[in-house]
Design brief:
single chain, binds guanosine-5'-triphosphate, 321 residues, binds magnesium ion, four-stranded mixed β-sheet, 18% strand, alpha/beta, binds zinc ion
Length: 321
């Protein structure tokens, strides 16, 4: 935790633990919290997590239906992908959807341009699915393309690096910091997969005055409550669908289907349509599994606790986790 005083460790208070149901309530990297210092204690006690202006979440890995906040209060989320054997446009779409949902602005960083003969073509393909978000083609190894990326990071902004293990997030952080602060590890030769070298989330101050958070590579990104994010990621498909003859068109083989026509004429990639379907199915599945009552109770509880925060802690002992 950092603040006006000095950096120190903080842990959730007993009361916070009792009231929190874990998951989305739990303090995450980037959170602002109100804390209490107790005489004779070195650790501060976290009383409340202040409202977040953005939050990147995912469904917790495995079968459990719960959310996990990866990082909070982010301005820009850099989705890092490597142009190697593990490159996958559909995975980038998945990250984009959750980013749009998060409230942070997404940008795509295509790393390892040095080792890829068709880097420019792939960057063009990604630009085609990024729906206006910037796409940076870089090599953290050679430094190629980093100037443009750095120029986009502004003083005071909080930036997070997201992406699979081994794509070069920590290598990028070291480059931007101009020193070897984060350990990095070679990827497996057989499939270019990383070895989960970074194990905790950490925030660094860049020379430009921007703050950057390195994160451990996610094994899987299952979307959480991202229906709007999915819609924003696939505005092109939505626009086509709006022109279908039947309003309930399933875009299979109905007459007058603009989506299928776009696939035939090469305007839309069939894989992108499949990706859209898959992400929508995931959202529907989640909604069915979630108890609607839980959402309402949670909202009410957050409202009450925020009122308490404002009353009790305004202007006092604020720190950044
Ligand atoms: N050729 C090439 N290799 C790179 C580049 N950037 C990173 N690497 C290599 O890719 C490997 C993985 O890099 P890391 O920075 O550890 O990857 P990471 O995304 O932080 O991985 P996790 O911490 O496991 O999530 C290292 O061996 C890096 O040297 C690049 O631009 N080009
Ligand atoms: Mg790393
Ligand atoms: Zn249709």
């Amino acid at each position: 935790m950092a603040g006006d005083f000095e950096d120190c460790w903080a842990e959730p208070s007993g009361k916070f633990r009792k009231e929190s149901e874990g998951g989305g309530d739990w303090p995450a990297v980037g959170d602002w919290v109100s804390v209490e210092f107790q005489a004779g204690q070195t650790n501060a006690l976290i009383q409340h997590v202040l409202p977040r202006r953005s939050r990147f979440v995912r469904k917790v890995a495995g079968k459990q239906i719960a959310e996990q906040v990866i990082v909070a209060n982010i301005d820009v989320a850099l989705i890092v992908a490597a142009l190697d054997g593990d490159f996958n446009v559909r995975r980038i779409e998945r990250y984009l959807a959750q980013c749009w949902e998060s409230g942070a602005r997404p940008a795509v960083v295509l790393n390892k341009a040095d080792g890829c003969a068709e880097a420019k073509e792939l960057a063009a393909e990604v630009a085609g699915i990024a729906m206006g978000s910037p796409v940076f083609l870089v090599s953290a190894k050679s430094g190629e393309g980093l100037e443009a990326l750095e120029a986009s990071l502004r003083k005071g902004q909080t930036i997070v690096l997201l992406g699979s293990s081994g794509v070069g997030k920590s290598t990028l952080v070291n480059r931007l910091l101009q020193e070897e602060r984060q350990s990095t590890h070679e990827v497996r030769e057989s499939d270019s997969r990383g070895r989960h070298t970074t194990t905790s989330r950490e925030l660094f101050l860049l020379p430009s005055g921007a703050m950057i958070i390195d994160t451990p590579g996610l094994r899987e990104l299952q979307l959480w409550n991202a229906a709007d994010g999915v819609a924003q990621t696939f505005t092109d498909v939505d626009e086509l669908a709006a022109q279908c003859r039947f309003t309930d068109c399933q875009h299979q083989n109905e007459p007058g289907c603009s989506v299928q026509t776009a696939i035939t004429t090469g305007v839309l990639d069939a894989d992108r349509l499949e990706s859209w379907r898959k992400l929508q199915r995931e959202q529907e599945f989640l909604l069915r599994k979630m108890d609607p009552g839980i959402g309402a109770i949670q909202k009410k509880r957050i409202k009450i606790s925020m009122r308490q925060v404002r009353q009790k802690y305004q202007g006092r002992d604020k720190g950044k986790n």
